[in-house]
Hints:
This protein has three helices and five strands, in the order αβββαββα. The protein is of the alpha+beta class. It has a five-stranded antiparallel sheet with strand order 1-2-3-5-4. The longest helix is centred in the C-terminal third of the chain and has 11 residues, at 74-84. The termini are close together.
Amino acid sequence: MEALLADIRANRMVKLPPFDPALSSPAERFALTSVGIEPNAYGGTFGPYRYQFEGEEDLLHLIVTQQNSLPLTVEEARKVVAFVVPQVPPAMLWLKPGEYSQHFYFGHDVLL
C-alpha cells in the first residue's frame, strides 16, 4: 500500500506488472485469473485470494481472483477488498462482476 500511495501522490501511473507467461498455467481459461502472479508493488495475496491494483486515469482498478483460478463470488471478493482497503466505504466502490475475477473501481482521492 505504501508504494501505491506514494505513486498516487506523485501522480505516477499504477501499471500492471509485465506479463510472465512462464508463471501462468496453460490450463487457465481467462487471462485475468493470473494477473498479478508476478511479484510487484501493487499486488499481493490474502488467504487463497490474489489482488492486483492498476491505475486508470483518476480511478484505481482492484482485481481480485482466487490463487487456484477457480470461480470467485462477489461476496468472497468483498472480503478481500475490506482487508486491502478498509478505509474505502463500500458505497464508494463500483463493481464489475465476473465469474473468475471480480473488479472494483474507486477514485484515487478516496485513499488519500
